[in-house]
Give the backbone structure.
Amino acid sequence: MHAKPLFGAILTLLLGVSSFAAPQEKTQDIITRELSNGNTVRTEMSLNVYRQEPYQAEYTEQVPYQVEETYYVDVPYQTTETYYENVPYTERVAYTDTEVYWDNDYVCRNVTKYRQECHNERVCAPGGRVCQPITECGTNAHGERICKTRNECRDEGPRDCRDVPQCRQVPYTDRECGYEQVRKTRTVTKYRDEVRYRQELRTRTVTKYRQEARTRTVTKYREETRCCVTKYRDVFDHQFTQPVAVIFPAEAVLLAGEVEKIQVTLRGSESKPDVNISVRSDIFGYAIDQVRMDGREKVFVLKLVPKWTEQNAGTATVQGLKLSFNKGQGKVVFKETVASARLVSVYTLEIRDQQSQAVILQQRLEGTEAKVFEVAAPELAREGKYSILLHVERHGVNVTNGALTFDQTASYEKKELDQDEIQNLKNKDQVQLMEIEGHGAESVLVFRDQTPAAEEIKSTYKAVIWKKLSNGKIEWLGEKAFAREDITRAGDELAIAFKAVGVNPAVGTKIYIDLVVNRTSAQYLGSQKVQFIVSKTF
């Protein structure tokens, strides 16, 4: 009776010992290569090897048995039930309607008529007509004398006059009366038949069901434990180790402080181990030149390949070349995204006037960092038109062919703000309330506006200050508006003194601040007005 529990306890103990005895595997490792390591780094990887071991285990079996169970069936029966039915009937209903009829009315109206009016007009005919020749002489272009003769006529003698009758139709107003057919309306009562419904009681025979209990014998199954069957489990046998060496090229010499990482991964089995390496380096580029076995050690021999190519250090890696103006001062900005101590980048910036093509600014910069470069251009005028050329040269032993060059170009012309710039002015996330410095009347509200300060954009900030009373209500303390240029501090911080608002809160008072931000620009925003509120509790 007690053999089975004892066997199970011994089995559990053996399993626990086998699992506990298995040492930690090392299937992944990251090796650090520094100046002190030279050109070869080593590590040792390991895999645990398990064997299949048989053991006796209990098992369960489905055993049938019979049992009597109760079940229910639906038995039909007939019964009589009453119900109501909607029965239609017709009813005569009176309603009011409007009808049209014609009637004779005596009607008078003004009409326009015409009569003929005549009078005499005196008409005179001219007298007799007399003509005589007239000779005119002159000199032509050749100095020759030439003459021309023309007839000149005039009316002479008495005029013949007579009276001629003239008539015209003249309108006048008269009044005419008589009987006419006139359209009229009147209200009359009419009748129509409408269908209506009434409920009448009816009876009908229906079939219904009731549940009746029945019994039946059914076969069911239960699980019973049996002993025993042979099963197999993995039991730790031994640990397999795989030495790994990575040999770097002789010319890949590190300087003090430089570091490279080699990730080594072991997969597979003892009979067929699979080792992979991956080198992470910001200095050199590597490829596997040879893989060999020196005894038990797996050796990876690397060769140099270009670290920086057109794909990872070319045109697309210098971004955002742009000329902009802030308070009338020009500034060229571009962003470098590539960084390496062994990669030297030289930037030659040239700005030309688009009309005359004269070089207005030329400057040379050098760097090895990924950062934003800003070049002041005080010689430029905001109203100008400029072409910007940025020539980039990258040098280093890890660069394709030893050097990599490309150009970035941009142009500038004074224009309206684009939609992104306008949306930036409307973005309330650009303004952050930072802190309150000092106490009482000496308190200063410090905040930050991350939109660029431009002379064409007028930004004003109205500080509305409240406090919370002991009864939970809010009391207004004061408010006042300030222009951006009047409250600018060092850096990009802005500050409003409480005493400038006329506020002197007691120490420990909870302060609520609404900062109303207004931006206007006749040039860029026109009649648009940008306004939003930033709030914070201190």
